[in-house]
Each structure stands twice: as C-alpha cells, then as structure tokens.
Amino acid sequence: MHDNHALMDSGGFLPLFLLIALLGISPYLAAVYFSNQKYRNWPLQRIVFWSFGIISATAALVGPLAEQAHVDFRMHMAVHLLLGMLAPLLIAMSCPMTLLLRTLNISAARTVMAVLKNPPFRLINHPVTAALLNIGGLYVLYLTSLYHLMHESAFLYAVIHLHIFLAGYLFTVSIVYFDVTPHRFSFLYRSIVLIVALAGHKILAKTLYATPPEGVPRTEAEAGSMLMYYGGDLIDAVLIFYLCWHWYKSTAKREPSFIK
Amino acid sequence: MAVNRTNLTSNGFAGNQVLYSSRNFWSGLLFGIGLIAFMDEVFFHQLLQWHHFYDLATTRIGILSDGLLNSFAWFAAIFSLFMLSDLRRRNALWPVKWTGAAFLGAGSFQLFDGLIHHKVLNLHQIRYGVDILPYDLVWNISAVIFIAIGLFILSQTRIAKRKKAGNSHA
Fold first, then answer.
1. Distance of CA A156 to the CA centre of its chain
2. Which residues fall in a coiled-coil region (chain B) (predicted)?
C-alpha cells in the first residue's frame, strides 16, 4: 500500500457518505410511497436493489476506496467494478423507469415515453452503441494517456466516472430488459452483443496485464487486471442469467404447441 | 426440424423428444463447452496453477481468441441449463442425445484449446518447467476420445430417432 495514513485520515468520510447515499435513495422511496397510493405495492426487493445500487456507486466515489483509487490501480479497478458494473446492474434491476412512469401523471408519462422513443435515445439505447460506449470507452481510458491525465484533473475525473456509470447502465438496460424498453431486439441479437462485449472486457483485462496503463506499476497492473477479468465474469454471469431467464419465460408462450 | 409435427401429436413423450431433437443437441453441446471451459479455469488455472493468466509468449490474436471463446463458453454454460429446464418443462428431454452432444462439445473445445490455443497461438502451455510433450498428448488424445464417444452416442440416437418417428406413422 502506498499510504496507509490516507486510510486513517478518511475516517471522517462517513457523514458525507451517508448524506450522498440518502440523497440517492430518498427520491426512489418517495416515488414508491406516492405511486403505492394509486397502484399495487411496489415490490420490496426492487427497493433493496436500488438502495444497494446507490450504496455501491457512493462507495466508489466517496470514502477510503475512492481515495485509494487515485493512487492504486487495484483500487481503481474495484471502483470500476462497483461504479461501472455492479451499481448499474442493481439500479437496472430496481426498474426506475417503470417507477417513474407510474409515479407521474399520464400526460407527463406520455412525454417521457415520447422522449425515450426519439431517434437519439434509440441510437444510444441500441445494444451495439451501448456496448461501444461502455467497452470502447474503457479501451480509450486505459490504452491512451487519458488514465494518467484523469488523475491530474478533478474535472476529467468527474466526467470519466460519470461516463463509466452511465455507459454501464445504458449497456445493462440495452441487453437485459428489466425495465421499460420501447424498442426491443431479439434474444439472439442481444446474446451475441453481450458475448462480444464480455470478450472485449476480457481482452482488455489481459492487454492491461501485459502492457500496464501509463504510470501504473507492473504488480498493481497484474492484480488490477485479474480483478477486472474475474470480477467482470461474476457480474456478467448475473446479466447472462437474467437474459436467459427472460428467454425461458418467453419461449413457453411463443411455442405452446408441445405435447403434454 | 425435419420431422413432420402433425404426425407426432399422438406419440407423447418420444414425439416430444423427436420434435425437440435439435434443442436437445444444442443444449448438450453448449453445456459440454461451458463445463469443460469452467473445469479448465477451476482445475488448471486456480487449483493446480499450471496454466498462466498470461505469459509473455502470448500473441495479440491469442488474447483475442481466448477472450471470445471464454466469453462464449461462460454464456453457453448458463444458457444450456436454461434450455435443459425448458426441455424438461416440455417433457422433451432426451438424456442420451443430450449426453452425446455434451461429450462432443467438451471434446471439441478441449481439442481447439489444445491445438489452436496452446500450440498455434501460444496462449499458454499446459504446464511450465516440464517436458510438455506427454501433457500435450494426454490433453489432445483425451479430447479426441471425448469427441469419439459423443459421435458414437449421437449416431445411436439417430437410429433411435428413425424408429421413434417411424412408430408414429404406424
């Protein structure tokens, strides 16, 4: 470890951490409360998913892990997994768009749907575009000097981390339809995009093992890239599971002519 | 599917197997690929630590091919089990055909890994600091044996399928 004292000094992060987590969780709770007056109760597990999604994103941005991530590539990778993969997955599983639509009044909900069906939204919600933004963004970050520059500028750091989260979320919802999805693609199509994107993630992890990003020591790069490789496998397994689970549910309806 | 669906409606279980014959094949094949890739990771990478995550001899195309294949195998392992439950739900599981296809999938992956990845692309070797030839021989010959077992079982089910399809005409 570079600086254990940073870990000690950061004991005061807790109030800020709780404040941000609370700010993230409370709008969701409010929407659940108001929409429960009109419709059947919103499932409890979705509230849990949202809360853990917000907590893992907050843990990536505030506190000891976030501080260490500035100097240690392994910690940066942990941040990447939390912010770019786990938080988006949990948040997608909490179906925020469905919740938003049932909380708004009908005309506002129609406006939201109309916006989502706009060509620009459809373009970035396309599985291929989302995969390129997500995985392609990582190639740009790690294989150019951007990773090095990011630690020099707070602005770049903020923009890049926002991108990591948004692109991760976009990719998740474009592959697995947990939530409202106006324009849908077939199971096979999304499967192929997911396999290629996961392969891109693995290839990048091994490339980083072989050629560390600018300014990253070899041992850190090796441990960090293995964390990226296996951590990515773990979270992608959940994505694959839900994608296949939705196939399993829909294929019974599509081919009902089997013999009992 | 080559069989005529209308002829099978009176044939119950065997009819479902024939009707979903190709889904049995694909589910088994994908499961074989997924299982052998998973075992490769667990035994050779993690437990024995013979394989290396990366060794300096690996080519760029080797990393690419390894990434694609492992990503596909990861997907295959999970999807094949959902196909298996789907077949059970439809009362259409054909265990013999499924097993044959699984052997074929496992053997093919093992042979591809052993010849293309280890030898042509130099991805990593089976083990380091030893005479590699016996390891390569055991690896690839066992792969060929898996393929042979798979093909033999599948050829048996083909005969069985003809009989089952024939019965439904009678």
1. 19
2. none
Q: Model pTM?
A: 0.86
At B42, the amino acid letter reads V
User: Each residue of A40-64: pLDDT tens digit?
Assistant: 999 999 999 999 999 999 999 998 8
Rounded to an integer, what distance in angstroms lies between the CA atom of residue A69 and that of residue A82? 12
State residue B170's pLDDT score: 44
**B19:A203 CB<8 A:** no
Q: Do A200 and B5 touch (CB under 8 A)?
A: no
- Residue A217 region, left (φ>0) first, then alpha (ψ -120 to 50), else beta? beta
- Nearest CB among A199, A229, A252 relative to B68 is that of A199
The verdict on A209 touching B (C-beta cutoff 8 Å) is yes
Contact B35, B77 (CB under 8 A): yes
The partner residue sitting opposite B74, judged by closest CB among A233, A245, A252, is: A233
Q: Are A171 and B27 in contact (CB under 8 A)?
A: no
How is chain B split into domains, by residue range? 14-169
pLDDT digits (tens, 9 = 90+) for A197-241: 999 999 999 889 888 888 889 889 999 999 999 999 999 999 999
